[in-house]
From TrEMBL:
<dbReference type="Pfam" id="PF01467">
    <property type="entry name" value="CTP_transf_like"/>
</dbReference>
<dbReference type="GO" id="GO:0016779">
    <property type="term" value="F:nucleotidyltransferase activity"/>
</dbReference>
<keyword id="KW-0413">Isomerase</keyword>
<protein>
    <recommendedName>
        <fullName>phosphoenolpyruvate mutase</fullName>
        <ecNumber>5.4.2.9</ecNumber>
    </recommendedName>
</protein>
<keyword id="KW-0548">Nucleotidyltransferase</keyword>
<keyword id="KW-0670">Pyruvate</keyword>
<keyword id="KW-0808">Transferase</keyword>
<dbReference type="InterPro" id="IPR015813">
    <property type="entry name" value="Pyrv/PenolPyrv_kinase-like_dom"/>
</dbReference>
<feature type="domain" description="Cytidyltransferase-like">
    <location>
        <begin position="13"/>
        <end position="132"/>
    </location>
</feature>
<dbReference type="InterPro" id="IPR040442">
    <property type="entry name" value="Pyrv_kinase-like_dom_sf"/>
</dbReference>
<dbReference type="GO" id="GO:0050188">
    <property type="term" value="F:phosphoenolpyruvate mutase activity"/>
</dbReference>
<dbReference type="InterPro" id="IPR012698">
    <property type="entry name" value="PEnolPyrv_PMutase_core"/>
</dbReference>
<dbReference type="Pfam" id="PF13714">
    <property type="entry name" value="PEP_mutase"/>
</dbReference>
<dbReference type="InterPro" id="IPR050385">
    <property type="entry name" value="Archaeal_FAD_synthase"/>
</dbReference>
<dbReference type="InterPro" id="IPR014729">
    <property type="entry name" value="Rossmann-like_a/b/a_fold"/>
</dbReference>
<dbReference type="InterPro" id="IPR004821">
    <property type="entry name" value="Cyt_trans-like"/>
</dbReference>
<dbReference type="InterPro" id="IPR039556">
    <property type="entry name" value="ICL/PEPM"/>
</dbReference>
Amino acid sequence: MDKKLVYVPMAADIIHTGHLNIIKESAKLGYVMVGLFSDKAIASYKRVPLMNYEQRKQIVESLKGVDEVVIQDEKDYSANLKQYKPNFLVHGSDWNTGPLNEERQKAIALMESWGGKVIEPEYTKGISSTKLNKNLKELGILPQVRLGALKKALFAKPLIRGIESHSGMSALIIEEACVKDKNGINQAFDFLWLSSLTDSSSKGKPDIEFVDLTSRIATVNDILEVSTKPIIYDGDTGSQIPHFAMMVKRLERLGVSAVVIEDKIGLKKNSLCEGESARHTQDSIENFCAKIKAGKQAQLTNDFMVIARIESLILEMGMEDAIARARAYIEAGADGIMIHSRKKDGAEILEFCKIYNTFANRKPLMAVPTNYPILSEEDLKNAGVNIVVYANQLLRASYTAMKNTALSILEHKRALEADKHYVSALEIINLIEGN
């Protein structure tokens, strides 16, 4: 190659004038090779990309000044730099701070080791992918885009996290919730969990499938209007087989990404309840497999997921039964398995994971650490869990806050003492678009 090699790393999820400027400056230096981040590489330090790798690659290849596109499969630049040994590495000055700063230091040292040079053009002012993404979110999301977002997140990340939403207000909170960890990486929730427990409880009704699908869909619609995140719907037992097929069709049409159904029959009782009176009846493997098959046959796309929830450990039927059911449910077409437990130490969850990970046809594994909060996301990820759900924390927190506020007002005969613990009325008004 006569020209000097110029390596330009990019995520390029939303192409803007900043990207074009970087490419223009790079083309002056030589042959431009764009190291395009894979979906997994992007998701390791910020949100899952809107477009997948192949879509982004087609766009970048068509940009004037780009000679070649190669995949960069990690946030760390080292592997590609060692492989191609470019003369120049060109990156916008925005990586001087934030989640890529550590990678910057390593890249500079590597480039210097063979006499290469790092060029850092001034980051284009007034342009931000984060701000552009926020603007897109404010426009909303189409059902078919939301529908496929869960599978996309599962492909891009080893573990995704979700939290329950029982109202439009809770969905707004989840949509905006984001913190930076010690490495400057944004941490946010990947999906919403539409819990039957919290939906029923927020209506003052028992969690026995008394609140019907039509009423629960009203809650789903409230949430769809204010959130862009994918949704996993808690489908309880799925009711009778024909009813479950209709539920799948309705949820998929709305853009819900997945439904979880549990292998129980008869009057539903919540799995966290204890005592003989709370004991429920587990469905037969044959009948539950038939229900899974009916749900899969009813869906119209490959994006919708049916996740089978196993109650064997709750009912103390033993690990062998739980594993046998997992195998059977996957064979019946389940897209994922949820394993549930009441044990406080999480030990039987970890034991299940160890055996489940040996499955040749393993599907994504979901856990709900309500009763074993001692296990961190890192613990669960290391055990092989792919989906973690915080299933009822927001409703529990809101109950505590509302109760304390009511008692404070009764005690002090005014709201002054309680007011310091919650946002102002004006903040609530300003939170809702259109006020």
